[in-house]
Specification:
Elements lengths: L1 H36 L9 H11 L5 H12 L20 E6 L5 E3 L3 H20 L6 H17 L12 E4 L11 H5 L3 E5 L8 H4 L5 E5 H7 L16 E4 L6 H8 L6 E3 L2 H23 L6 H4 L9 H12 L3 E4 L24 H13 L16 E4 L1
Parallel strand pairs: 3-4, 3-8, 4-5, 5-6, 6-7, 8-9
Antiparallel strand pairs: 1-2
Length: about 375
């Protein structure tokens, strides 16, 4: 009886194996179909790949170019940095009649006045280069470092590390024009505005209060062309915080700083590097998820060594570090809205990845724990994004 069952059992075994193989092939075929419908999985589901993206985001592909530029500047060679011509002429020892001291007098490059600026420029640039390294704890220290500089000017005694109770970061997107959030914006203890965007005639939508003016150094570079380095659309008493886009802009900072009543503060380069890594991570992550192309193709697709975070992104990061609650206004875009509410500009800058930054803002709101490169010692404040 048992022997007679052996052939039957063998047949059953073969049937089971065949069924399993068929099921496996079906799954494999099904996964292919699924992959066609949803091309790429989320990076968080692939820890090894995510680790690769983190390492790639930590590499600054523009580092060698930056070092070369800094070496030339420290040697006094501004010949190859024409973007700085509002302060210097193309030669080393020429007079640029547009370059003026705080008293409005032309500055001769060999004059004692310029020599003092030149020595200070070298000192600031050396210090900036020395500090320019990644530090994950920089967000923990932000309220102390920047708050101290602002409090010294305002005379407030808020205490070390004391943060603003609430902050509104006002972007410049055209979507603000239909928001009518002006009153809500002004209700915050601190209002941070970007790149000297004007508020006149737009108060209903953007408010009129400004506590901090946040700019990139290209904006100050334009201000330096004006007599007295005028750069105060919100009033001479509003502190200006800026990040350095180009090392040569330290000359603008030094010449203009003496004419500013309110403090003109440059961001810590460690803070700059943190922002750069975060934005690059989100940009690379979206690139891999949406295109499936290798990492090496990300650079050519995003302006290579010139890729950079936007002023708005760093202003948001600033608010996250110095405020107990953060509200974000005017970040986003619409086909029916202008790029900037106060200009007719429609095109976006290629060196920014706004889509990646939008994803970052949404993570700030709903799941800040997934944001990379920030120390676990830092506690994220509540963030609200108004569209």
């Amino acid at each position: 009886m048992k022997r007679s069952l052996r052939p039957l059992l063998s047949i059953l075994f073969l049937m089971v194996v065949a069924a399993l193989l068929t099921f496996r092939l079906t799954l494999r075929h099904g996964s292919i179909q699924l992959r066609n419908e949803t091309p790429f999985v989320q990076i968080e589901e692939l820890p090894a790949l995510n680790e690769t993206l983190l390492k790639y985001a930590s590499i600054d592909i523009g580092e060698s170019k930056l070092k070369e530029e800094i070496e030339e500047l420290l040697e006094g060679n501004f010949r190859n940095h024409g973007r700085h011509r509002s302060f210097l002429s193309s030669g080393k020892y020429h007079i640029d009649t547009r370059a003026r001291s705080a008293r409005g007098l032309p500055v001769q490059l060999r004059s004692p006045e310029f020599y003092r600026v030149w020595l200070s420029f070298r000192r600031h640039l050396h210090d900036w280069v020395r500090k320019r390294r990644f530090q994950s704890d920089i967000m923990v220290e932000l309220a102390n470092s920047l708050g101290h500089s602002i409090d010294n000017y305002s005379g407030e005694k808020r205490g070390m590390g004391r943060k603003y109770k609430s902050c509104a970061v006002v972007g410049n997107s055209g979507i603000l024009l239909k928001s009518e959030n002006g009153g809500l914006i002004d209700s915050h203890e601190a209002v941070i505005r970007l790149n000297n965007a004007r508020t006149g005639s737009f108060e209903l939508n953007v408010g009129k209060k400004t506590t901090i003016s946040f700019v990139n150094s290209n904006i100050l570079h334009l201000c330096a062309r004006r007599e007295g380095c005028f750069c105060h659309p919100y009033g001479a008493n509003v502190p200006i915080i800026m990040y350095i886009c180009q090392p040569a802009h330290f000359l603008d900072y030094l010449v203009c700083n003496s004419s500013h009543k309110a403090p003109l503060i440059t961001t810590d380069p460690q803070f700059d590097m943190l922002c750069a890594r975060i934005v690059k991570y989100y940009s690379v992550k979206q690139f891999v998820e949406n295109t499936g192309k290798p990492l090496e193709q990300w650079g050519p697709a995003h302006d290579g060594a010139n890729f950079h975070y936007s002023s708005g992104m760093q202003a948001v990061m600033l608010a996250v570090g110095i405020c107990d609650k953060v509200s974000i206004f005017g970040f986003g875009k619409s086909t029916a809205a202008k790029h900037h509410y106060h200009t007719n500009q429609k095109a976006e800058l290629g060196l920014h990845d706004y889509e990646a930054e939008y994803e970052f803002y949404h993570d700030l709101v709903s799941r800040p724990q997934v944001i990379p490169f920030i120390s676990d010692n830092f506690k994220f404040p509540p963030v609200v994004l108004y569209q």
